[in-house]
Design goal:
The structure holds 2 protein chains of 2 kinds. By secondary structure, chain A is an all-alpha fold. Helices cover about 85% and strands about 0% of the residues of chain A. Chain A folds into 2 domains: about 30 residues, no CATH class; about 60 residues. Chain A starts with 8 loop residues before the first helix and ends with a helix.
């Protein structure tokens, strides 16, 4: 079986979009689990929120914000590709989506640090 | 001997180390050959040298040698290419070339693939003009500046080499997928004002293996030897299908 010729920017963009989507789907039940803590009582939720203030958790949350943003911006690029008149600058848009997502993550970290 | 017989010139800088796939897809194997390196040597020159000077049983396909017929495409160092227009120097790694048949097509023998599935899909995508006039009619006057003609022109120079079909992930994942070349052809016809089969063709290219399968990886565009963008054509078909779903005509 001959392997597909990949390693192109837009193939990576498609993979980032898919993997971020799966990762967010896995994250969602955990998110609801935490929201469920609020129903159990204040102490349980507060315990979690104190844990969430740890720097290592904040860094993990940076990853989460990045995943959310990259899936959002990447999805907008795909929708624009499919519904708007064709633009040949797809690599530029994919790079912009990753850049904007990174900025969103950094913005989150800065606001968490202040 | 014509210019493709690279053995007719003296060796310049040593030997190229060539590995060529021999046999069928399942029970085949690579064979190693040494070919004299030459200036301005194409990959097709190398394969021809092996066939004419080393092993006459090597099967491969070519015709025009100038990038027009689309019959000499092979996988060269993992990438699908038109071998007659690929200079060895641009693709060899330390003088080494690994030459295989195209992906996504049945291998007949060695470097020859069975192109039937590829052309069957052209037919399945209604990739032929449905004439609305006969030979007695006046020659149609087409405005070259119209948006439709410009859209058709952008995709019309396809040479049917199947490099895009070989590069496409979706063709590998879904054997029913019509593929970039057939859909690109369908798009050019959807923009041809002489054509009378647009409704049928739109149905054909939006069926199970149709344009909506495309994941827009753009491997077809990346590897197309004549610089077309089948992804742009497929995106055009998707827009056309969406407009049709809302009861609106093509744009």
């Amino acid at each position: 079986m001959i392997r597909a010729p990949r390693k192109t920017a837009l193939w990576y963009a498609a993979m980032i979009h898919r993997i971020s989507g799966v990762a967010l789907a896995l994250f969602l039940p955990l998110h609801f689990l935490v929201l469920g803590l609020a129903i159990e009582g204040e102490a349980a939720l507060d315990g979690f929120l104190i844990w969430a203030e740890l720097p290592i958790v904040k860094i993990a949350e940076f990853g989460l914000v990045f995943l959310l943003a990259v899936h959002l911006f990447g999805g907008l690029r795909v929708m624009a590709l499919e519904f708007l008149p064709w633009s040949p600058r797809q690599k530029t848009y994919a790079a912009a989506a990753v850049g904007a997502s990174f900025m969103a993550g950094v913005g989150f970290l800065l606001s968490a640090a202040s | 001997m014509g210019s493709i017989d690279s053995g007719s010139q003296p060796a310049a800088n040593g030997k190229l180390e060539i590995k060529i796939w021999r046999g069928r897809a399942k029970d085949g194997a690579f064979s190693a050959y040494q070919v004299p390196e030459q200036a301005h040597q194409t990959v097709l020159d190398v394969v021809t040298y092996v066939q004419r000077r080393i092993d006459a049983t090597l099967a491969y396909r070519f015709a025009c040698r100038v990038g027009m017929c689309g019959s000499c495409a092979m996988t060269v160092n993992g990438v699908p290419r038109w071998t007659c227009r690929t200079d060895v120097k641009t693709v060899a790694r330390k003088g080494r070339l690994v030459i295989e048949p195209l992906r996504n097509l049945p291998v007949v023998k060695d470097l020859v693939t069975d192109m039937a599935p590829f052309f069957d899909k052209w037919q399945a995508a209604e990739g032929r003009l449905q004439a609305t006039s006969d030979r007695e009619a006046e020659v149609a006057t087409i405005d070259p500046a119209s948006p439709e003609r410009k859209a058709a022109d952008a995709g019309v120079e396809c040479i049917n080499c199947a490099v895009c079909y070989s590069a496409c992930d979706v063709v590998t994942w879904n054997p029913d997928y019509l593929g970039p070349a057939a859909l690109n052809r369908a798009w050019t016809l959807q923009n041809d004002e002489r054509d009378g089969g647009k409704a049928e063709r739109l149905r054909a290219v939006t069926s199970d293996g149709g344009c909506q399968n495309c994941h827009s990886h753009q491997s077809c565009t990346e590897h197309c030897p004549v610089g077309l963008s089948p992804t742009a054509s497929i995106a055009g078909l998707k827009r056309m299908a969406t407009r049709a779903a809302f009861g609106r005509g093509p744009r």
